[in-house]
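Q: My labmate handed me this sequence with no annotations at all. I'd like to see what the chain might look like in three dimensions before we decide whether it's worth expressing. Could you predict it?
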Amino acid sequence: MKKPAGLLAAAAAVLFGGLLVGPSTVNGSVREDRGVSRTPVIVFPAFHFTKLEVTVRNQVAAPECPRSGTFEDWFLNDQPSTTFSQVCQDKLLTLRFDSNPAKPMSKRFRDQRGVKVRIKDYGKTESAPFYEPMYEALEAAGYVRDDDIRVAGYDSRLTPDMRHFVKQTKKLIEDTYRDNGKQPVHLVGHSNGPLYAQYLLTHTTQRWKDKYIHGFTPIAGNFPGQGILYPLFFTGLNITDFTFPATAENAESSALMYLSAPSSYMSAADPRVFDRLETVVEDASTGRSYTPEDYGQLFEDAGVAWAKSIADYYIGFVEFVDPSAFPDVDVYAEKGSGIETAVGMRLDDLSVGQVVDESNEFFTRDGDINQEDLTNDAVLVWGAMSCFHFSLTDNPGVDHFALPSDQGVLERLLAHLSQPRSRCR
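A: Here is what I predict for the chain of 425 residues:
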């Protein structure tokens, strides 16, 4: 099919304009009896839904760009920089990669010299304004922002093994627990956010989870990645509005930024789940098609073989399929379905920096407009968790970006927050 007026680009437009799978109790688990106050909530935002503040001082990485200044990077940024162009922002947010294999992979990525990136208003709801409808729904039930509603933001270029993410997030959870009368905290993640929450849950002890975690609500969790990430290594995608770059210069700067970011690979379809079930890239110049299983050959053929070492490490990085990687907390998953969803693209060739136009064909399958069914259904493996609750609720016709503000999703979230935990130890 030709480029539709809204598969990826429609993400921004839809912002303005239940089938329950799994038993409510598993294997006869016993629910913990507690007559207590509100369960605190910590939100894990989606990909680039956390406000980043970028400070530039005497940078030389992009001589054609301002040497110093500041700008912010986040989806739907309503005050974009008038000093730093989109191309300059891309270049300054492109990570430097050290190819030295003797270094741990998580230590091989650095910001450009003279560039400092920090999360703005860390822990506060202001750091992720996209979730305003969720905050308002919680407030209507008596919650208080930045008290029993907090946000575990992160630098979306990075993976959760970097820059003390686990340590920082554990502290946020523990502080929230103590500040709210020692009430266990409920984690709510959207899109890529559940990847970071899941990494945390699998890198803490069961004893810690039993003390601090009430449960986990992944909303369209991108656990095994998604097919459409692969074309973005060649076309780029502008973060401010999730549209494709309109110029070759912007397409190149954006694509190179994605190639440098380890989170791009973590978000790309894992062949251990996808195998060869979908075509993610087709090279029109050669007629060759690539599935997730072919990612290594794709990077070789594209002349970016250096990216393969990053891909080998970070594709499928957040484990979740094997029982040893189950979260072992109560899970109340949500997904959307029934919407034509892009999973791949026919590109003119494999050059980095292509402008997408009507000549580019998208490959689609059922999904939520952003993630395909293979992604959204992968979490069903957690139905095999022993004792802990698991459910997956389908929301037909509700798109990926509308799920966190959907009335049904929010009503279920409030209901789950009031439920006692399963007592499994």
